[in-house]
Amino acid sequence: MTEATTANPNNKSRRPRGERMDMAQQLQALRAGTDGATTAPEADTAQAVAQTRQRPQHQQQRKPKKPQQAQGRQQPSQQKQQQQPQQPARPQRKVHPALERLFELYPNLFGARFLPLKLGVYEELIARHPDDFKAEDLKVAMGLHARSTRYLESVAAGHPRHDLDGNVAEPVAPEHVHHAILELHRRRSQRTGEDLRPQLVARLARAVEASGLDREAYAVLVRSRDANNNAVLDEALALLAEQAAKREALLRAFEASGRSEKEFAEMYGMNPAEVTRTLQRVRRDQAAAAAAAQEAPPTPEATETPAAPEAPAAD
User: Fold this and answer.
1) How far apart are CA 32 and CA 37, in angstroms?
2) Are 218 and 211 spatial neighbours (Cβ–Cβ below 8 Å)?
3) Tens-digit pLDDT profile for residues 39-48
4) What is the rounded CA–CA span in Å between residue 150 and residue 113?
5) What pLDDT, on the 0 to 100 scale, is given for residue 40?
6) Between the chain's N and C termini, which has fewer beta carbons within 10 Å?
7) How far apart are CA 286 and CA 255, in angstroms?
8) What is the location of CATH 1.10.1710.10 in the chain?
9) What percent of the chain stands above pLDDT 70?
10) Is 96-172 a domain of CATH 1.10.443.10?
């Protein structure tokens, strides 16, 4: 029995139960086609080894990321925040003690809203509050207040001047409005670095119209030694002259059309209300110019008595 079994070449010797092939033996058995001689665990091991051999080399050599590298990676927003240095906070300006006292006494004038103050208000404050202010401290505080941007904005807007009781005292002079506009423009240009000249020209043109003066009288009142400011003023006056010429041309075209204002506006595709306002304005300007010409004093040439004609020379 034993010899027959040993002599039969088809019979395969069995390994003792519990004995497993090492890795080399499993590969050799896999290549030789002895899958049926292996047990289920051995077949799984051989298949895993074969898959491992077929796996690309770059996948086998991949290493897990180091925890330090994963933690060190930051979001783009965090990198930008680290790259950009934090700007130091602006130091808060100290308010002059006299200004704080003025705010307590007159919150409607020195509080959330600034209003132009009547001329001579400094003397009134000294007279009303001799124990609250020293003359020199109040002078410094009033200077700071008058040069502040918020106060200049109120003057440039053309708000009237007010007394300490909040009553309207007098209008702001046109030259004060003009210089406030120029100063605000200078500060904004320095702060932003932008070319704000077109806005300045347009604002000066509106100031000229609000002053109630004609262009020549306004120019004489506000012209200074600053060549640049005078050039801007000339641009504003030229802009106003161009606008006035267009209004006068519109009036002449309307009068020549022989139509009503509504028909005239529809004919040229214009807003009827805008046409009415423009015509009213040009008529008003012409009436004011005629009245100013009548009130103006006569020129020396017009008042001189014409000389009598010379007698003909005797023969």
Assistant:
1) 11
2) yes
3) 444 445 445 4
4) 8
5) 46
6) C
7) 15
8) 96-172
9) 64
10) no
- 144 neighbors 96 (Cβ within 8 angstroms): yes
Q: For 246-287, how does the pLDDT look when each residue is reduced to its tens digit (9 = 90+)?
A: 999 999 999 999 999 999 999 989 999 999 999 999 999 888
Which residue, among 155, 161, 173, has the nearest Cα to 121 in the 3D structure? 161
Q: What is the pLDDT of residues 210-227, one digit of tens each?
A: 999 999 999 999 999 999
The DSSP string of the chain is -HHHHHH-TT--PPPPTT----HHHHHHHHHTT-GGGS-HHHHHHHHHHHHHHHS-HHHHT--PPPHHHHHH---HHHHHHHHSPPPPPPPPPPPPHHHHHHHHH-HHHHSSSB-PBPTTHHHHHHHH-TTT--HHHHHHHHHHHHHSHHHHHHHHTTPPEE-TTS-EEEPPPHHHHHHHHHHHHHHHHHHH----HHHHHHHHHHHHHHHT--HHHHHHHH--S-HHHHHHHHHHHHHHHHHHHHHHHHHHHHHHHT--HHHHHHHTT--HHHHHHHHHHHHHHHHHHHHHHHHSPPPHHHHSPPPPPPPPPP-
pLDDT for 229: 95
Closest CA relative to residue 253, chosen from 270, 233, 229: 270
Residue with tokens 């008595």: 305
Inform me whether the pLDDT recorded for 100 exceeds 60: yes
Question: Other CB atoms closer than 10 Å to residue 183's CB: what's the count?
Answer: 15
Mean pLDDT check: name the lowest of 19-28, 146-155, 187-196.
Answer: 19-28
Tokens for 228? 């640049």
Of the candidates 117, 112, 153, the one whose C-alpha atom is nearest the C-alpha of residue 138 is 117
